[in-house]
Amino acid sequence: MSDFAWDSSNGAGSASPARIIAWLIRHPPIFTLLLIVLVSVVVGAISPEFWQISNIFDMARASVVTGMFGLGFLVVLAAGGLDMSFAAIAALMMYLVTTATAAHAPWLPMPVILLAAAAGGALLGVGNGLLVHYLKAPALIVTIGTQYVIRGFLLTFVGTELFINIPLPIENFGKYELWRVQTDSGSIAILPAYVLVLAAAAVATWWILNRTLMGRAIFAVGGNPAIAERLGYNLRKVHIFIFAYAGLLAGVAGMLHVSSNRLANPFDLSGTELGVIAAVVLGGARITGGAGSVIGTLLGVVLVTLVNNVLILAGIPTTWQTFVVGCFIVLAGTVFATRESS
Amino acid sequence: MDSRFPELDPAAPAAPAASGPPFLELRGIQKRFAGVHALRGVSITTEAGQIYHLMGENGSGKSTLIKIISGAQPADEGAILINGRETTSLTPLAALSAGIETVYQDLSLLPNLSVAENIALSQQLVESQGRLARRIDSGRLVTTAVRALEAVNLPTDPRFWSIPVEQLPIATRQLVAIARAIATEAKLVIMDEPTSALTKREVENLIGVVGRLRAHGVAVLFVTHKLDESKSIGGQFIILRDGQKVMEGDIADHSKAELSFAMTGKKLDSVRYRRAAQGAAGLLEVVDLRRSRAFANVSFSLAHGEILGVTGLLDSGRNELARALAGVTPADGGHVRIDGKAVALNRPIDAIKAGIGYVPEDRLSEGLFLEKPIRDNIVVQVLDRLRNRFGAIDGRRSRALANDIAGELQIVAANLGNPVQSLSGGNQQRVLIGRGLTFDPKVLVLHGPTVGVDVGSKDTIYRIIQKLAGDGMGVIIVSDDLPELLQNCDRIMAMRKGTIAEVFEAERVDEAALYRALVAESSSSVQS
């Protein structure tokens, strides 16, 4: 047995600093959590408002759409792919489903609307998957292409106008309250019920990735596609599934975006791609595929949302947000690269 | 026959009497690739509990045959019978469910998945017939994995089976791959050159595991170049040449010379290649070179035209020493002098400027740009010299240089513009040696020069090495192939635990003595 060195730094023993660092490096979500705590403590010390319940609720609300995108991106990334088209899919489904519902069936209940957006997003995702599989082109390039095609289609054939009179079921869905808190100052803080959609999506994604053969096949393909194929994993199924799943989550995310903003703007959501990728990478997913976790992704989303929303509380100009996120990405990239080479 | 490896117990339960049809039978398999007739009607059978050695030079059709058996490629013509029943199309999954497990050189392990998953997921994938919308039975996954780990003497506690395979040393990974074969209840395990990355001790352990597989009625098919090893393992052999089966039988009934003649079609004498005398001393002087946790107190000298062998087990520091001389992973202390002049070797470019050429051990990942033309791979280290006055690379001069080198090293290629990956292993190795020669080095460090190279190519490479030394170049061969060192070197330096244990005159030592020097005092840690 003495020949097999494994995980030697994980054994019960004195907790030397080097060991702690080594352990952190191998558990990237912990590192993300540390950054969250760091930002919270610093901002909270400067501005006690940070810890107000309304602020916490605001951030939960702001995390939902990024979170949905992040989960979809994670699933594609785990299989070694990159999906750049999710925001375009979300924008198309959001605008298409909202305007179509308003014009033809404003009475349609929200679950049906969500289902329609999910199905439409999944269908577009299947298209991505088929292209990636049969063209054997890098997923990054293919999905940048489909992103432009989808956006072009939206603006050319569907519409370019801000749509304000959104159907009542969609509007009401954004108003359902999960939790209402009366603060000491007399104001009211509300946690909207749609955060549960993100929670459900997170649980579903975790279950698929960790408890099904598809999930393991996704990681297998992300680890080494040639070997995975040799072992009998069907690459076509995996490619179609990951992009369809990302598209499905994007479609739902689009509807959540309309519900919370109570208007549909076809120009919304564009440019959110890099923020989502940043969140997923900060959550410890390997950009080359094959590694990443749902909990890490959620923490990454929280971290990015935190930086985007609270720096202003600390009196730091908002222009610094991207600067800070950028520094965190470089830092995280360095730490996680150490993990791979060690 | 030497006795470097434990022989399999001949009394182990042999194949059950041939009551039924053989497990696997191939009849008249033909395979063509654009213009190349890779297999010309090959027929083989394998019985349960037997050991087979599939031998042949690179390009003989071995790999193609393996791919057909494992379902990776279809045969153009011929029949495949499993348990006497003909299968029309053998897919990877169909081969797996029939009990054919192939352990390729890359071991077919998924680096990012855990040990347990690598071992036991296949079972559930086969049972679901490839359908992925299935829950994983985690409990059974672990039970299956643990049982298989026990069978190959690996630890069975969660701390071991939950770690990603990429964190394990290569020999352990190989055992994991074998454990997977056990978990899928394989009837035939194919191992593609399983020992090329292993030290002797690891090879011994592998052979022990193979013996246990055999005792369970599993047939094992080795694909190999190594005659010595095959002879000491024993069993049946099948030799392919030019896509045809030229010879088969019990390996004990045939001499090494006969076998290599069958493989190459030419006589191969295992004489000493080294003939020329060395020149003036003091070409390379290494004093007290050290690198923490790798090697220390390493001092030696090399004369003009001398060939020095360096050998040792995997933990001996030989690989690190080779890389330090090349400036890849620099030494922490000590001095290196070339022709009396001190040189600092902190980066690969320092070594090149000092006149040290380096041919790395792993030509696929460290050496070659696989998709790039052969020509570009040869000239890549001297691009500076090939610049014309506009700063662009002079195509004519670069072609001329590549052609010269290709001619000198007898690189067999239809066109030097073809990607280097289209070449056989032996030719790839020659490209790499050729590159090392483009800047006229004074010292050439060859790290495992014939790993994964067939018998015929070895011969060519040895002749090239001798010619280089004859021209006055100092050559250092770092290798664990002891016969290779004995045939080629003037002196052989045996390393142990990071220091030079002994230095031998190659003509006054035999393989057994050399091997004893490598393993002395370090045999206590062989796993139980």
Secondary-structure topology with pairs:
The complex is a heterodimer of chains A (342) and B (528).
Chain A: H1 17-26, H2 28-46, H3 53-78, H4 86-104, H5 110-135, H6 139-158, H7 168-173, E1 177-182, E2 188-192, H8 195-211, H9 213-223, H10 225-230, H11 235-261, H12 273-282, H13 294-310, H14 320-341
Antiparallel strand pairs in A: 1-2
Helix pairs in contact in A: 2-13, 3-8, 3-9, 3-11, 3-12, 3-13, 4-5, 4-6, 4-11, 5-11, 8-9, 12-13, 13-14
Chain B: E1 24-33, E2 36-46, E3 51-55, H1 62-69, E4 77-82, E5 85-87, H2 92-98, E6 100-103, H3 115-127, H4 138-151, H5 158-161, H6 170-183, E7 188-192, H7 200-215, E8 219-224, H8 227-233, E9 236-241, E10 244-250, H9 256-264, E11 284-291, E12 295-302, E13 307-312, H10 318-325, E14 333-338, E15 341-343, H11 348-354, E16 356-359, H12 363-367, H13 374-379, H14 395-408, H15 425-437, E17 443-447, H16 455-470, E18 474-478, H17 482-488, E19 491-496, E20 499-505, H18 511-519
Parallel strand pairs in B: 3-8, 3-9, 6-7, 7-8, 13-18, 13-19, 16-17, 17-18
Antiparallel strand pairs in B: 1-2, 1-4, 4-5, 9-10, 11-12, 11-14, 14-15, 19-20
Helix pairs in contact in B: 3-4, 3-6, 4-6, 6-7
Question: What does this molecule look like?
Answer:
Chain A is mainly alpha-helical and 342 residues long. Chain A has a domain at 48-270. Chain A has 14 helices and two strands; from the N terminus they run αααααααββααααααα. Chain A has helices spanning 17-26, 28-46, 53-78, 86-104, 110-135, 139-158, 168-173, 195-211, 213-223, 225-230, 235-261, 273-282, 294-310, 320-341; strands spanning 177-182, 188-192. Chain A has a two-stranded antiparallel sheet with strand order 1-2. In chain A, β1 (177-182) and β2 (188-192) form a beta hairpin. In chain A, α4 packs across α11 (235-261) and α8 (195-211) packs across α9 (213-223). The longest helix of chain A is centred in the last third of the chain and has 27 residues, at 235-261. Chain B has 528 residues and is an alpha/beta fold. Chain B folds into two domains: 47-72 and 89-264, Rossmann fold (3-Layer(aba) Sandwich); 284-519, P-loop containing nucleotide triphosphate hydrolases (Rossmann fold), CATH 3.40.50.300. Helices cover 34% and strands 23% of the residues of chain B. Chain B has helices spanning 62-69, 92-98, 115-127, 138-151, 158-161, 170-183, 200-215, 227-233, 256-264, 318-325, 348-354, 363-367, 374-379, 395-408, 425-437, 455-470, 482-488, 511-519, and strands at 24-33, 36-46, 51-55, 77-82, 85-87, 100-103, 188-192, 219-224, 236-241, 244-250, 284-291, 295-302, 307-312, 333-338, 341-343, 356-359, 443-447, 474-478, 491-496, 499-505. In chain B, the strands form four sheets. A six-stranded mixed beta sheet of chain B has the order 6-7-8-3-9-10, sandwiched between helices. The longest helix of chain B has 16 residues, at 200-215. The relative contact order of chain B is 0.11. Residues 1-18 and 522-528 of chain B have low confidence and may be disordered. The A-B interface holds A 1-7, 10, 211-217, 219-220, 222-224, 227-234, 237-238, 241, 290-291 and B 70, 72, 91-93, 96, 102, 104, 106, 108-113, 117, 121-122, 124-126, 128, 130-136, 138, 154-155, 159-160, 163, 167-169, 171-172, 525-528.
